[in-house]
Amino acid sequence: MSITQQHVLDTYRARRLGEPAPPAPGAHDWQVVREWRDERQFRAVLAGRPARHRFRDALNRWRRRPT
Prior knowledge:
Elements: H1 3-17, H2 29-46, H3 54-64
């Protein structure tokens, strides 16, 4: 059963029971990614490491390199 079929089945069951419909698959993916990133930064601060954005810093270094 695919995730879409499962969602349709859950929505059908919720409607029959008078409950609110579940969120669509993937509706909260970016929120989960942001929370995961915040947790990593928080743990870095607790461990005494700088809470940095490694990918963003590398991209900025690449953009600022002398040509």
